[in-house]
Amino acid sequence: MRQGVRDACVTASAVGVGLLTLEGARQTYPDPARAHLIRDLLIGLVACLVLLLFRRRRPVRVALVLTATGLFASSSWGATAMAVFTVAVHCSWRATAAVTALNVSYIVLTFTQVDELTRRERLESVLVFLLGYAVLVIGGLLVRSRRQLIESLRERARQAEEEQRLRVEEARHLERERIAREMHDVLAHRISLLAVHAGALEFHADAPADQREAAGIIRRGAYEAMEDLREVIGMLRTDPGDGAPEPGARDAPVPDGEDERPQPALSDLPALIEESQRAGAHVTFDDRVPDPAGVPSRIGRHAYRIVQEALTNARKHAPGAHVSVTVESTGPGGTLAIEVANRLPPGPPPAPALPGAGAGLVGLRERVDMLGGALEHGHTQDGHFRLYAKLPWPS
Questions:
Q1: What is the pTM of this model?
Q2: Least confident range of 272-286, 304-318, 340-354
Q3: 43: how many CB neighbours lie within 10 A of its CB?
Q4: Cα separation of 249 and 228, whole Å?
Q5: What span, in angstroms and rounded, lies between the C-alpha atoms of 5 and 19?
Q6: How far, in Å, CA of 337 to CA of 289, rounded?
Q7: Contact (Cβ atoms closer than 8 angstroms) between residue 45 and residue 76
Q8: Nearest CA among 91, 90, 68, 66 for reference residue 79
Q9: What structural domains and CATH numbers belong to the chain?
Q10: If we measure between CA atoms, which residue out of 84, 171, 176, 191 comes closest to residue 129?
Q11: How far apart are the C-alpha atoms of 234 and 229, rounded to whole Å?
Q12: Residue 244 and residue 282 in contact, taking contact as beta carbons nearer than 8 Å
């Protein structure tokens, strides 16, 4: 649609300038033959059609051809001028300068050959045409610069969107690694307990032989499961090329406590809130869970991480704002709901004082989706930012 409007405007301008030029020629030569007038109009019409059809595909060639038609028809000068404008819009400054210089030279030469004009009239006519061409060329260059600027802004926006997409994908990948490591720590602890109890039963003197044999099978299976788990998760703990041993190298040393780090639970939330308060944050905690210790460790661990990330985001984007944390549950077979809300600071959002990738909510989404829950976040009508997560609590 826009292209059609532009073509119509350019063609109309070419027709208007051509008719004005033809009228000026008629005043210079008062009694032209009728056949000459008709020929002039036909050549001008053909020039306008050529301009309309081919000006974008071959702008320089069209301008050269239309410059030649000016030798035979005054009405084609309008099409020639608009062809120079098109060259300024679509071609380099060198091509624009060459085509403009050719047309200006032709105009000056043409008016110097008109004996019917006085010297003053020649000079005025040349100046008018030169000023007109200057306006056309400068306007075309401005249009070209504006288009290049818009294109560069679009390219920057596309690159920014692509970078944001990559950051989100990286955040998801890192959060999945983090969750896998947490699961490894939990599973390692539980499997090690299983192996210890199975070992105690295997070497119990009063246990029947068949029970000791079964306990030995369980102990060996637990040990092999621990080794397999260590081998798989080892690929997540080290990056390729950093000099780390291969995942299959079982003699690689493991730091003390690496596989048995205590994982947070829902009962650790008061300590997290107290830590934020000691750091200067204004946080209130409304605990509506009757028995936090009875919440499954898997659910409680992710609930703790959600609150932790929400408090971090509040410190970054709304420093000094009051934050309210509410946790409530409907018991086994129901849900565990977490709500964190803070008032938005007035005016434009401040630059975060803490560094970050801006993808913390993406990681929370990964956690909630893994549990089959729901996550909502955004601005409320009363000027708050609210994060609400609902996690299923298996019966």
A1: 0.46
A2: 340-354
A3: 20
A4: 11
A5: 21
A6: 10
A7: no
A8: 66
A9: 2-117 (no CATH), 266-392 (3.30.565.10)
A10: 84
A11: 8
A12: no
Q: Say whether 20 sits in a helix, a strand or coil.
A: helix
**In terms of residues, how long is the chain?**
395
Helix boundaries (H) for 29-76: 34-54, 59-69
Distances (CA, A) of 333 to 303, 374, 391: 17, 16, 11
At residue 12, what is the residue type? Answer: A
d(CA 381, CA 25) in angstroms, rounded, equals 71
Give CA 282 to chain center in angstroms.
34
Which tokens in the block code for residue 351? 């630059």
Q: Does residue 389 have a pLDDT over 90?
A: yes
Counting Cα atoms < 13 Å in the Cβ hemisphere of 234 gives 19
At 336 the three-state DSSP class reads strand
Would you state the structure tokens that stand for residue 308, as one six-digit string?
Answer: 């932790």
User: Which two structure tokens, joined as six digits, stand for 167?
Assistant: 């950051």
For residue 33, give both structure tokens.
Answer: 């033959």
Tokens found for residue 100? 């403009």
